[in-house]
Amino acid sequence: MFSSQGPSLRDLAAQALNSVERGYDLLAPTFDHTPFRTPDRVLTATAEVLRPLGPFGAGLDVCCGTGAGMRALTPLCRGPVTGVDFSGGMLAQARTAHPDAQWVRADARALPFTEAFDLAVSFGALGHFLPAERPALFAAVHRALRPGGLFAFPVAAPPRVTSPWYWALAGFDAVMRVRNAVWRPPFVMYYRSCPLTALRTDLAAAGFAVTVAPLEGLGRREDGSPRCQLLLARRA
């Protein structure tokens, strides 16, 4: 799974036994050499959907990690682009990789922005928020956007119950729940906690008008449905 430059199993164990913030601080130097970094094909497919909806002014990457999302966000925006994350270690890597962007350390549930951005994106971060935390997250993004601003993030189609991936993800989530029941601090990372219907409901409650677009660049399943969709939430 990992390159020679990636983390060892010991590194991953150390991450899993710490808080989310401290865990990503530890993993930051090798994070881009793991499968957990957002793949370029996801970034490209997202940009292809968003490009006809722009151009945009200022852009925000929510839970930016090491800044991979800037590869999609920067070309779409005429104004400055900003990444926000609560891991200082991840932000340090992002600053090195993308020195022209702005970087802010903050909790995504309490973003320090008001009507400052025209486009916000997020990649692979929602599993770090419990369902009860999503309203605060979406309200913070809504507040950070200017009227008419757009919040976009990809949502993968859930694997079928007959797929090995279904049971692998279910097993991972079960292990994480047991870990969090017996060990502190908690490490929140659940792969099956963000069904599309629930996300749409929470976004609408935060004041967004919500639509969905297929990410055609990522292909379709055997039944013709998209493998991944881009959730588009616009501040009215």
TrEMBL record:
UniProtKB keywords: Methyltransferase, S-adenosyl-L-methionine, Transferase, Ubiquinone
Organism per entry: Kitasatospora kifunensis (Streptomyces kifunensis)
Alphabetized GO MF terms: methyltransferase activity
InterPro entries: Methyltransf_25, SAM-dependent_MTases_sf
Boundaries of every Methyltransferase domain copy: 60-149
Keyword Transferase included in the entry's annotation: yes
The organism's place on the tree of life at top rank: Bacteria
Gene Ontology terms describing biological process: methylation
Keyword S-adenosyl-L-methionine among UniProt keywords: yes
Organism phylogeny: Bacteria, Bacillati, Actinomycetota, Actinomycetes, Kitasatosporales
Pfam families: Methyltransf_25
Gene3D superfamilies in the record: Vaccinia Virus protein VP39
Name of the molecule in the record: Ubiquinone/menaquinone biosynthesis C-methylase UbiE
